[in-house]
Amino acid sequence: MSTSAGPHPTPVLITVTGPDKPGVSSVLFAALTRHGVDIVDVEQVVIRGQLVLGALVSTDHDPEGLQESVEQAMATVAMRVDVEIGVDQQPGAASTHVLVVLGRPVSARALGAVARRLAALDINIEAIRRVADYPVTGLELRVSVPQDTDEADAALRSALAELSVKVGLDIAVERDLLARRAKRLIVFDVDSTLIQGEVIEMLAAKAGCEAEVRDITEAAMRGDIDFTESLHRRVATLAGLPATVLTEVADALELTPGARTTIRTLKRLGYRCGVVSGGFTAIIDRLGEDLGLDFQAANELEIIDGVLTGRVIGDVVDRQGKAVALRHFADAFHIPLEQCVAVGDGANDIDMLSTAGLGIAFNAKPALREVADTALSHPYLDVVLFVLGVTRAEVEAADLADGLDPERV
C-alpha cells in the first residue's frame, strides 16, 4: 500500500504600500485569516508618512484566490498591493556588520557611492534605518559579508575609510554582535573633545605666551614631539601666575555641543562615564562635578604660596598614562576592557583608544585617525551616541520622560 503526500505549501509575498493610517494591518490580516494561511515573516516600516508592509505567507490551496481577496481588501482602504506567488522562502543572510553613516546632509550621491563600494566587495545590505536627523543625519546599515573573516573585516574598514573622505561622510563600522550594545564604561579626553579649545592655551594667554604654547601643543597632538616633554615645556611658561587663574579658566570653559546630552544619555543607560586628561586636576575636578562624572584623572600643577611654580607634581598622565588610567578605572568598576569605549583627538590618546574595546577619534589628528576603530569629523559630541547604537528618538524620548526639553539641553 502506498500513500501520497498532501499538496506542497505555496509561498506568497504580499507587499502593501501607501499613506500610513490606522486599520491597514487589521484589514490585511483579516483577509489572510479568511484563507487560513500561515505567517512566515512580517515587516513594516514607515518613511515620511508612507507605509511599506510586507508579509510572507504560506498557503496549501488556491493562491490565486488569496491574491484576489487581498487585492479587494486593500482597495477598501485605498492601499496599493503587490502579490508574488511562489517566491523563494529562504531567509536572507544574517548581517555580520553594522555601518553607521553620518553626514550633514547625507546626499543620494554619497549614499549611492557607499552602496556601490559595498556591492564591489560582494557585500549585501540587509536593512537600513534612520537613527538620527539632528544634529546630523544618521543611517544604520546592516550588511552581510560573504566570508566573515578578519581579512574581510579589515578590507571593509579600509575601503570605507578611503571612501568616507571622498564623499564627505563619516562611516563607522562594527561587527553586528551583542557586544555592540554591551559597552559599560566610556572615557573622554577633555581638551578639544569634551570641551572646546585647550586649557593650557587659555592659561598661557594669562601669561602672555599663548602662541608659543599653541605651537608646542599642536606638535604634541600630531605626535611630532613627546607629550611629556611638551607638557613640561608648556607648564614652565606658567611660572609666576597666581593660582586664581585656574578658577578663571574653569569658569570660562565651553563644553563641546552635545556633551551634556551624551553624558546624560549614557548614564541613563548604565554607563560609567569619566575623563582621562593630559590637563590639570584643578580644572578637571570642576568639570567632573558639573557633569556628574564617575571618575577622572589628570595632572596636578604645583602651587606654592598661591602661585604656580611652572612644574607638575607626581606622575604625568601622558600617552602611556592614559591607557594605564583606563585600565585602572575598568578594574575598579569590574568592567572588561572590551566593554569600554575611549574618545579622543590627539596622538597622546593613541594608547587609550587602542586599549579600549572601541576607540573613537573625534575631529582627530591623522596619527589618531589611523589607529582608531571609528573616526568622526562633525563637531557634535552626541554623534558618539549613534555609533554606540543609540538613536536620536531614544534620546529625545528619555529627555521628555524626565521633563526635559531636548531642544534646550
TrEMBL record:
Q: What EC number is given for this enzyme?
A: 3.1.3.3
Which UniProt keywords are present, listed alphabetically?
Answer: Amino-acid biosynthesis, Hydrolase, Magnesium, Metal-binding, Serine biosynthesis
- Pfam families linked to this entry: ACT_6, ACT_PSP_2, Hydrolase
Task: Pull one GO CC term from this UniProt entry.
Answer: cytoplasm
Return the Gene3D superfamilies for the record: 3.30.70.260, HAD superfamily/HAD-like
The reaction(s) this protein catalyses: O-phospho-D-serine + H2O = D-serine + phosphate; O-phospho-L-serine + H2O = L-serine + phosphate
The pathway that the record names for this protein is: Amino-acid biosynthesis; L-serine biosynthesis; L-serine from 3-phospho-D-glycerate: step 3/3
Keyword Magnesium annotated: yes
Note the superkingdom of the native organism: Bacteria
A single GO molecular function, which one? magnesium ion binding
The protein's enzyme class? hydrolase
Cross-referenced PANTHER family:
PHOSPHOSERINE PHOSPHATASE (PTHR43344)
Q: Which family does it belong to?
A: Belongs to the HAD-like hydrolase superfamily. SerB family.
| Name assigned to this protein | phosphoserine phosphatase
List the source organism. Actinokineospora terrae
Q: What is the lineage of its organism?
A: Bacteria, Bacillati, Actinomycetota, Actinomycetes, Pseudonocardiales
